[in-house]
Write a structure and sequence with these properties.
It is a single chain. This protein has helices at residues 29-39, 54-66, 108-114, 132-145, 162-169, 179-185, 194-205, 245-259, 263-277, 288-297; strands at 9-12, 16-19, 24-27, 45-51, 73-76, 82-89, 92-97, 121-124, 149-152, 174-178, 209-213, 219-223, 228-231. The protein is α/β, with parallel strands linked by helices. The chain has one domain (9-297): 3-Layer(aba) Sandwich (UDP-N-acetylmuramoyl-L-alanine:D-glutamate ligase), CATH 3.40.1190.20. The protein has a nine-stranded mixed β-sheet, with helices on both faces. Helix 1 (29-39) packs across helix 8 (245-259), helix 3 (108-114) packs parallel to helix 4 (132-145) and helix 6 crosses helix 7. It starts with 8 loop residues before the first strand and ends with a helix. The mean pLDDT is 93.
Length: 298
């Protein structure tokens, strides 16, 4: 896969450790997306921050092993590397997200200094925008890059409010959210039909597409042109947990957007890869063959 600035994704946001009862796993939705993109054969530029601490050094060492560019990862001596306490119930995760983390304080000047302009797409979530410092950095990147924006909604209580998240959606070209997030952010939250909710969301914010993941019901995409594509969820042989499935879906969707795949192809490949990630402990793996197998299937 030939990599140029026009096919490079700039991934902005949190890198953190998901702390389970028996282990800690490197993660954060934007970081997971960047990691998966690298595994799937592209070269994303991740822009985030870690603390000047043992966990931060572990992130830097892991990036080096994986071959990811470290230039966009800032080291903040004033705040700790991000952590989230994760509890699993029936395979589904719940999160206790700590405040005052390094990813809340991504420096604007440092972010702009490493941004590869032009870029193919600018990806961000919603969690890292809870603090005005990182919010300012994203806004400056968005202006500098002038790239289409892929917003991956990740609503984590208590770190969001409806009006603010909807304001970010208005700057996006594509918005991906799960079914619960669609209801929470839709202009018609009482509407029972998710297709109507998606259409009204697309129209309200002038989006190119709304991408909705629906757990066991699969996923759907509604486009500005009025097309609706749906994909059933593939079976998961050897389910471990669903941590990172949505991030895996996003990474393949971004790959498809950058490579010009049609939406039917994107949905099929994204759903299959997300199901595959459900066989892992956590969201990612350093097993390169795990990713190579999906690339060969494409």
């Amino acid at each position: 896969m030939t990599q140029t600035s026009r096919t490079r994704a700039v991934i902005f946001g949190e890198v953190l450790f998901d702390c389970f009862e028996d282990r800690s796993i490197l993660g954060g939705a934007p970081f997971n997306v960047a990691w998966n993109l690298k595994g799937l054969g592209t070269d994303p530029r991740f822009v985030g921050a870690v603390g000047d601490d043992a966990l931060g050094r572990q992130v830097l060492q892991t990036l080096t092993r994986w071959g990811m560019c470290r230039e966009g990862l800032q080291v903040d001596p004033g705040h700790p590397t991000g952590q989230v306490r994760v509890t699993l119930k029936g395979g589904e995760p719940s999160y206790d997200i700590l405040s005052g983390q390094a990813y809340d304080h991504i420096d604007t000047a440092q972010a702009l200094a490493v941004a590869p302009a032009p870029a193919g797409v600018l990806y961000h979530g919603s969690l890292a925008l809870r603090d005005p410092v990182s919010r300012q950095a994203l806004e400056a990147l968005r202006e500098r890059l002038s790239a289409p924006v892929f917003m991956d909604v990740n609503l984590r209580a208590p770190w969001w409010d409806r009006d603010t998240v909807q304001g970010w959606m208005a700057h996006a070209h594509w918005v991906k959210l799960n079914q619960d997030e669609l209801v929470a952010l839709s202009p018609v939250p009482d509407e029972p039909d998710p297709l109507v909710q998606a259409r009204r969301t697309l129209e309200r914010y002038g989006l190119s597409a709304v991408i909705v993941t629906r757990a066991s019901e699969g996923a759907m995409v509604l486009t500005r042109e009025g097309e609706c594509h749906q994909r059933s969820a593939p079976p998961v042989a050897g389910l471990v947990d669903t941590v990172g499935a949505g991030d895996a879906f996003s990474a393949v969707t971004l790959t498809g957007i950058l490579q010009g795949w049609d939406w039917e192809t994107i949905l099929a490949r994204a759903a299959d890869f997300a199901a595959k990630v459900c066989t892992l402990h956590g969201a990612t793996t350093e097993d390169r063959e795990f990713y190579q197998a999906s690339r060969q299937d494409w």
